[in-house]
Structure formats: C-alpha cells, structure tokens
Specification:
This protein has helices spanning 9-13, 16-21, 29-49, 62-67, 91-99; strands at residues 53-57, 81-86, 107-111, 116-120, 131-134. By secondary structure, it is of the alpha+beta class. It has one domain (9-134): Muramoyl-pentapeptide Carboxypeptidase, domain 2 (2-Layer Sandwich), CATH 3.30.1380.10. A five-stranded mixed beta sheet has the order 1-2-4-3-5. The model has no long low-confidence stretch (mean pLDDT 96). The chain binds zinc ion. Zinc ion is lined by residues 76, 81, 83, 118.
Length: 135
C-alpha cells in the first residue's frame, strides 16, 4: 500500500534484521499515523533534492530497535525517523543540501562510514531542534 506518491507501507516496515531474527515489525495505530506523517515530510525532502530516496531503515518495533542496537528513545521506534540513501547523488552533497535548505527537521545525522543519512521529525514543527550530527 502506498503511503504517499513515492513511499510505501512495505518499505516503512521492511528490515533484513527483523527477517533474520524473526521479529515482527508491525506498527500500532499511533506508530502507523507517525509513519504516514513521516512519509509526507520525506516527500518534501525528496522534492527538494530532486532524486529518489532509497530507504535503509524506517520503523523499528521496540524489539527490533533493541536488536539493531538502537537507543531506547530512538525515533525509529516511533516511526518518526528514517535512514536513507539518495539515489544518484553523493551522500555528503545531499546532506549539505538538506542542512542548508531551511527545511525543518529534528535531527539530521550523516553516517559516513555506514553510508546513509538519518533524518528525524517531530509531530510539531515548533518542537524540532534542527540538530546536525556527524557519526
Ligand atoms: Zn536512524
């Protein structure tokens, strides 16, 4: 099922780790709403960059988040954070463009070695910190 024009429910819950460990990665109603909300926020990022975003990791159930070594407060567990790779654009270039775009976000993290960008959102724009981190 499509969440928005370019993002699907399937890619929001897909996880190789979950399959490997046979962990269910099913969002509840609130998490589902957050995922839908995040998909809309991601569309703005995609539109701004002008390239497709390959989703690396999005929603992680409580157990899955522990399994991947995520922090308990991870926004992935709320469905409000996404790890992605811009298709056909250098990671650093996409990161800098988003960083300087004026677009709102809670956290933007460049995982250079792991090779993806993490972006997290909050339900209220006014709560977003526009925090930039490098890991
Ligand atoms: Zn992340």
């Amino acid at each position: 099922m499509k969440l928005t024009k370019h993002f699907s429910e399937r890619e929001s819950v897909f996880s190789n780790k979950a399959i490997e460990l046979k962990i269910k990665n099913i969002p509840n109603t609130e998490q589902r709403e957050n995922i839908f909300y995040t998909a809309n926020r991601l569309e703005a990022i995609r539109l701004f960059l002008g390239v497709a975003l390959k989703i690396d990791s999005w929603f992680r159930s409580y157990l899955l988040n522990i399994a991947v070594g995520g922090v308990p407060t991870s926004y992935h567990a709320k469905g409000l954070a996404v790890d992605f790779v811009p298709v056909g654009m250098k990671l650093e270039e996409a990161f800098d463009l988003i960083k300087n775009s004026g677009l709102s976000f809670d956290q933007l993290i460049l995982y250079k070695k792991k090779g993806f960008i993490h972006i997290g959102f909050r339900k209220k724009y006014s709560d977003e910190r526009n925090q930039i981190l490098y890991k």
